[in-house]
TrEMBL record:
The protein's name: Muconolactone Delta-isomerase
Organism of derivation: Polynucleobacter wuianus
Entries under InterPro entries matching the protein: Dimeric_a/b-barrel, MLI_dom, Muconolactone_d_Isoase
Assembly description: Homodecamer.
Muconolactone isomerase domain: residues covered: 1-89
UniProt record similarity statement: Belongs to the muconolactone Delta-isomerase family.
Length: 96
């Protein structure tokens, strides 16, 4: 199942820099692990914003929720999820 996910990150300005750096380091490690596994298919920065557009390829909504809600930055993100299905005019033979 494919999901388009937008994540807007809002770290509190009063958060100590070391804490923010530790969260981002852990987030990167987990995000790269999910990308290596194929679950986090695309990760794109939205230009000019501390936000990303991602494509997740997971087995279920529950798996998506677990992946997103266990990210270290989850408490500081506003997240929008859009489920995707094939477009009848798509020329792609698969879901890539
Ligand atoms: O920077 C972000 O967009 C937030 C989050 C998503 C992946 C990651 O490493 O951090």
């Amino acid at each position: 199942m494919l999901f388009h996910v937008r994540m807007n990150v809002n770290l509190p300005p009063e958060m100590p820099a070391a804490e923010a750096t530790a969260l981002k380091t852990k987030e990167k490690e987990i995000a790269q692990g999910l990308q290596s596994s194929g679950k986090w298919r695309h990760l794109w920065r939205i230009a000019g914003q501390y936000a990303n557009i991602s494509i997740f390829d997971v087995e279920s909504v529950d798996e998506l929720h677990t992946a997103i809600s266990t990210l270290p930055l989850f408490p500081y993100m506003q997240i929008e999820v859009m489920p995707l299905c094939r477009h009848p005019s798509s020329v792609r033979g698969d879901d890539s």
